[in-house]
Specification:
- By secondary structure, the chain is an alpha/beta fold.
- It has two domains: 134 residues, Periplasmic binding protein-like II (D-Maltodextrin-Binding Protein, domain 2, 3-Layer(aba) Sandwich), CATH 3.40.190.10; 138 residues, Periplasmic binding protein-like II (D-Maltodextrin-Binding Protein, domain 2, 3-Layer(aba) Sandwich).
- It is 43% helix and 20% strand.
- Strand 1, helix 4 and strand 2 form a beta-alpha-beta unit.
């Protein structure tokens, strides 16, 4: 409906007498009529062309199809740009090596970066790399935490009781913050490196692959994110009966959405679109591909807590090979070898 039609409708709704309405209409047609074809043919303002370089670490693709994720992100970037008056020509790259990410940032060919927390720490010496959002899972308002699960009747009541045991760890991203957290606990307790302390440590991509072996007595302990454990208990209440949480980590920001501000022309609108990603159908599709529910502003204190765990993990890995076993008994058999059930 053009402006003239809108005006006529509003005028009619005011219940003017027919003669008065007809007079108003005739006057408007007389004044504006010759110009209506011109108004109808006026082109929309041209879209401004902009280029946006986005780099996604394959660390975040552990549970995602790479091609699906790249396609979804490219379509979304085009939609966001168009809604803000830009024709966005986007480049979306999946990069395996953080050194490659560094090269692109220093060359000015990366405006958006999707990284795991450890990769961000390795790039944090570059001032232009700014973390703005972290990935959430489920309905929570804080980043996921990890839980160390043991059999309810296993008799494991201290970290020392895990000596010589088999542990399975769920890794949501390449950062594997569940293991980083476990290593930091070993460091704080002066128990040495994990390969010497435990009978075995296995990393798996799915929570079920970590929980089920402990549930069936094939492993002694599992580390999974808290949301996955809750889902597992809902699906099978026996999981909650046979397993207990031995220890829980603080919330750990793991997947990070970073920007280089000078590389994004429509920055404010872009960031607002990212913040509202979970409210948009196309945005929800992107989040689903990555296994996230939404993106929330980064909690800098939480990120620094993860950095401290990472620092302890690095210190632990620098211990001499023979240091952990000095004066300590050899690891004993793990639960499965003893034929015990949790």
């Amino acid at each position: 409906m053009n402006p003239l039609e809108k005006f006529c409708r509003r005028t009619r709704q005011k219940s003017l007498p027919n003669d008065s309405f007809r007079a108003v209409l005739i006057t408007l047609l007389t004044l504006c009529g010759p110009w209506l074809p011109v108004f109808a043919q006026l082109p929309s303002p041209p879209l401004r062309h902009e280029h946006l370089d986005m780099v996604f670490s394959t660390s975040l693709f552990r549970a995602a199809n790479r091609n699906d994720a790249i396609t979804a992100v490219r379509v979304w970037a085009s939609m966001v740009g168009r809604s803000n008056g830009f024709q966005v020509d986007s480049t979306v790259e999946a990069v395996d090596d953080v050194a490659e990410v560094r090269k692109r940032v220093l060359a000015g060919s990366a405006g958006v970066l999707a990284l795991d927390a450890v990769e961000y720490f390795e790039l944090s010496d570059i001032p232009s790399v700014e973390p703005v959002f972290c990935a959430m899972k489920g309905d929570g308002n804080v980043p996921p935490s990890y839980q160390l699960l043991v059999g309810a009747n296993s008799g494991i009541n201290s970290l020392e009781d895990l000596r010589g045991k088999a542990v399975i760890i769920q890794a949501n991203t390449g950062a594997n913050l569940g293991k980083v957290w476990l290593d930091a606990m070993l460091y704080d307790s002066h128990l040495g490196r994990p390969e010497h302390f435990f009978h075995s440590v296995v990393v798996v991509p799915k929570a079920s692959s970590a929980i089920q072996p402990v549930f069936f007595g094939k492993a002694d302990a599992a580390i999974v994110d808290s949301g996955s454990f809750e889902v597992s208990k809902e699906m099978n209440p026996q999981v909650g009966a046979k397993l207990r949480v031995f220890s829980a980590s603080p919330p750990l920001p793991e997947g990070l959405f970073c920007i280089c501000r000078k590389q994004i022309k429509f920055l404010d609108a872009f960031l607002e679109s990212v913040r509202e990603l979970h409210r948009d159908p196309q945005g929800r599709q992107i989040l689903m591909v990555f296994g996230f529910s939404r993106l929330a502003p980064v909690d800098k204190s939480g990120l620094e807590q993860v950095r401290e765990l990472w620092r302890k993990d690095n210190l632990l890995m620098k211990l001499p090979e023979n240091a952990p076993l000095a004066g300590l008994p050899r690891p004993g058999p793990h639960l499965a070898e003893r034929g015990e059930q949790p």
